[in-house]
Amino acid sequence: MKDIRSLSLAEITEALVALGEPKFRAKQIHEWLWQKSVRGFDEMTNLSKPLREKLNAQFSFFLVEEFVVQKSKDGTVKIAMALHDKRVVEGVMIPDDERSTACVSSQVGCSLSCSFCATGFLKRERNLEASEIYDQIYLLNQHAKAHNGRGLTNIVYMGMGEPLLNYDNVMQSIRYITSPEGLNMAARRVTVSTSGIERGIRRMADEGVKFNLALSLHAPTNDKRETIMDINKSNKLEDVIDALNYFYEKTGNKITFEYILFDGFNDSIEDADNLIKLYKQVPAFINLIEYNNVEGVTLKKAKAEKRDAFVAHLRKHNIEVAVRRSRGKDIDAACGQLANKH
Ligand code: SF4
């Protein structure tokens, strides 16, 4: 049976007309799906019972269902979610004083195998549908409301998978989240994080997207970056920087450089100087992220003294930089730790 949520409004209209129903019913159904986040036809209370029965006979809902919930000491919640084909993805809700941020997955596994990332150890099984990304947000929003008394304020595409290798579905999910026909959330509250897919960055720029873009940089030169991120062999830093400048020209949105500090790998003053050189080539700010050691990975978390010296050096050069504490370490929910232990 076909998933009703894989259909566009035009396709739902066509199906309704074929059932002998007026066209406006399609709009009502579309609103139930994407504005009101219903999870079955029986919740669509302005449809007649016979119509709901006909829809139930023709379409299904490929729902994402949570089945393991873990809560960290710091309030972070990680959920393992089952897809209709029994595959599993993980998503995280990170609360702080002002925000509740959802970190969502875009693929089951990942094809890129970055050497520091637990997800990279899993093979890529498939892309997530737009509705499956939407459902993660729906489920994480329930946790945000239950634990913090308010819904999600921010969404980051930084979970499992490379979002720009599932381009169409990721963009469609963002339309459902940000359009008035969907959840109507401000696009500036959404951030897509990429390992650096030049073509995808240019495509987003051409489409004039309104959301934010982050680059998982993690090393400031091609030579170094290639040793931990294979993607850098086909997408060189200079080409990615050109694409990021193009993105900035078209959208006016500064880029975030995500930089995990690894002990003895990218935490020297020379590395900081190379990072400054990159920073000066594109309007950006830098998030320095504390690593969580991942079983089987040789790269380790940088020492506090090295981290402090690195930050001080950047600040001395007037670089806009924030240091991000890792969250949810005790439940393997922190950056680089999503690995589907379930
Ligand atoms: S860091 Fe991102 S792109 Fe790299 S392996 Fe992990 S999930 Fe894939």
Class of secondary structure makeup: alpha/beta
| Largest sheet properties | 10 strands, mixed
- As a whole number of angstroms, the C-alpha radius of gyration is 21 Å
| Bound ions, cofactors and other small molecules, one mention each | iron/sulfur cluster
Major β-sheet strand ordering: 3-4-5-6-9-10-11-12-13-14
Key phrases:
342 residues; alpha/beta; ten-stranded mixed sheet; two-stranded parallel ribbon; 11 helices; 35% helix; elongated; binds iron/sulfur cluster
Q: Any overview of this molecule?
A:
The protein is α/β, with parallel strands linked by helices and 342 residues long. It contains eleven helices and 14 strands. The protein has a ten-stranded mixed β-sheet, with helices on one face. Strands 1-2 form a two-stranded parallel sheet. A two-stranded antiparallel sheet has the order 7-8. Helix 11 links the parallel strand 13 (284-290) and strand 14. Helix 1 (9-18) packs across helix 2 (24-34). The longest helix has 19 residues, at 130-148. The two termini are 28 Å apart. The relative contact order is 0.12. Iron/sulfur cluster is lined by residues 110, 112-114, 117, 119-120, 160-162, 195, 216. Iron/sulfur cluster binds next to loops.
